[in-house]
Structures are given as C-alpha cells and as structure tokens.
Write a structure and sequence with these properties.
Order of helices and strands: HHEHHEEH
CATH topology: Arc Repressor Mutant, subunit A
CATH superfamily: Winged helix-like DNA-binding domain superfamily/Winged helix DNA-binding domain
Strand order of the largest sheet: 1-3-2
Helix content: 55-70%
Oligomer: single chain
Length: 144
C-alpha cells in the first residue's frame, strides 16, 4: 500500500523539491535560459509573436514578471519588442534571428518534459495533478 503523506510540512517540502527539479529540467544552460525563460521562449517559438499579456496568461506569471523576463531576453538579443501596428497600446514580442536556436531548443525541451510527464503519469494523471494544483492554489489562510 502506498504511503499517505498527510503532514503539511512534508507536503510543502515535496512540492518545493518537485518545483526545484522541474525548474532544473527546464533550464537550458547552452542558451543561458532559466526555467521561466525557457517556457517563454518555447511559447514564442510555438506562436511566433505574443504580447506580454498573452505570455502572462499562458504561463501564469504576473505581467511584471513577464516584463522583467522579456527585458532580460531583449537585452541579450533573443527577442525584440515592437508596438502593435493595429493597436499602439500593445507590444508584440518576436524572437530574433539570434534567438531562434534558443527558442527551438526551448520548445523541444518543453515538449520532451510534457511527453515524459504523460508517459510517467498518464494523461489522466496529468489532468488530476493539474486539478490538485488548482485546489492547492485556492488554499489561503482566514483573514482576520
């Protein structure tokens, strides 16, 4: 019988360790990409252009965090920010020619990890994990 983990400190530790391991698996040292940068570059490779709002929605990262990531990637010449010609209030993020190898590698890494999760957990297991994480995000202490 599988051991039940009911201790909140133990669960917290396991979640932190899982996040650390997944983060390390997403890093692309050969392109100097951290985990969140890898996710953003993979999305940009998948969809060719995106707005910071789109990237925030797709990753679950805050708009501020996305802006910080994009500025860093832009500073390294991997992406460019341009005003949207249809709506000047929006910014379009595009992978540069120099960033293309990094975005392709990022997409490949994300796809490999997704495939491994499905292989290890099964599609139903991945869905269940996503549902359980949604429930955990809803946990908050009572306000006084």
């Amino acid at each position: 019988m599988a051991q039940t983990r009911t201790s909140l400190p133990q669960l917290f530790g396991e979640l932190a360790e899982a996040q650390r391991v997944l983060g390390e698996a997403l890093e692309l040292g050969e392109h100097r990409l951290l985990a969140t940068e890898t996710l953003v570059m993979a999305l940009l490779e998948s969809f060719s252009t995106r707005t910071p709002t789109d990237l925030s929605r797709l990753t679950g990262l805050s708009r501020g965090r996305i802006t910080h990531l994009i500025n860093g990637l832009s500073g390294r010449g991997l992406v460019v920010k341009r005003p949207d010609h249809a709506d000047r209030r929006r910014t379009i993020i595009t992978v540069t020619a120099d960033g293309r190898a990094a975005s392709k590698a990022a997409l490949e890494r994300v796809q490999q990890l997704q495939a491994r999760l499905v292989d290890d957990l099964g599609a139903a297991g991945v869905d269940m994990l996503a549902q359980q994480l949604t429930i955990l995000r809803a946990v908050s202490p009572p306000r006084e």
